[in-house]
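Project outcomes to date are best conveyed with an example. Our students and postdoctoral researchers have been running inverse folding experiments weekly, and each run begins with a structure described purely in tokens. The record below, which covers 253 residues, was selected by the lab manager from last quarter's runs and is presented without edits.
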């Protein structure tokens, strides 16, 4: 079996139109938030492309849902919460339905609508998402694609926290489960080189460009929280993609 780390842009350029096990990553902060919300008891999360779609979906279809998410790192006006996983870990969302959006991670998830198996990965659930991906790849006999969200609008932007998480998954699949890592490209090579330098993951990510930006904006607790390894065993999965009133969204339950 094989695995590879691939950008969302490269995924859409694949000539092979087949099914994969997809693991989506947005370490700072979307997938960390989704993992934490499900751990804290949320019954359903609907992911939309932007804040306007989220508000319309709540107004027209799901009035009892909580609006959670951000645009350009800041909580959207009219939302109950921003994209703050450290806050979600301390709260109880038992049986709550949520409509979620974010700048990059939400868009990456929605771009995979043709895939049957989409897992939400982060450092928080690293071991669990690796285990679940391995089991699915065995049962389905297919390749695992690990997709660092990066910058949803810039193919040339290297987002270190997403790539480090993705390459850690690929390395573990190779070392512990015998997967053939067929990743390639400058971002992959750069990440492997960084990991071999021996710095801790926590140090690398806290001092990353996005880590510094988030700390400057007052989200240092999220940066600290999202770098914690294997804190959560929950592995959220996309159950379906839907469209209502011209709004595309996917459902985690």
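After processing, the design step wrote out the following sequence:
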């Amino acid at each position: 079996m094989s695995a590879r780390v691939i950008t969302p842009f490269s995924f859409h350029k694949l000539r092979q139109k087949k099914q994969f096990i997809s693991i989506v990553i947005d370490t700072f902060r979307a997938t960390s938030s989704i993992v934490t919300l499900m751990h804290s008891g949320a019954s359903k999360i609907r992911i939309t492309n932007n804040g306007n779609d989220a508000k319309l979906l709540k107004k027209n279809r799901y009035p009892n849902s909580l609006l959670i998410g951000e645009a350009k790192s800041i909580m959207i006006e009219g939302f109950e919460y921003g994209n703050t996983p450290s806050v979600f870990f301390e709260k109880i969302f038992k049986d709550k339905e949520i409509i979620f959006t974010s700048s990059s991670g939400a868009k990456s998830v929605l771009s995979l609508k043709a895939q049957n198996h989409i897992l939400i990965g982060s450092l928080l659930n690293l071991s669990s998402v690796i285990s679940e991906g391995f089991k699915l790849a065995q049962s389905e006999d297919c390749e695992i694609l690990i997709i660092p969200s990066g910058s949803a609008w810039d193919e040339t932007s290297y987002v270190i926290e997403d790539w480090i998480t993705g390459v850690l998954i690929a390395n573990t699949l190779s070392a512990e489960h015998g997967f053939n890592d067929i990743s390639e490209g400058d971002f992959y090579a750069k990440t492997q080189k960084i990991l071999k330098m021996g710095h801790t993951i926590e140090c690398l990510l806290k001092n990353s460009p996005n880590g510094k930006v988030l700390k400057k904006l007052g989200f240092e607790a999220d940066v600290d929280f999202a770098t914690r390894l294997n804190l959560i065993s929950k592995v959220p999965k996309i159950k379906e993609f839907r469209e209502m009133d011209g709004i595309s969204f996917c459902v985690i339950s």
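Residues 87 and 222 are 8 Å apart (CA to CA). The two ends are 28 Å apart (CA to CA). The training component of this project remains on track.
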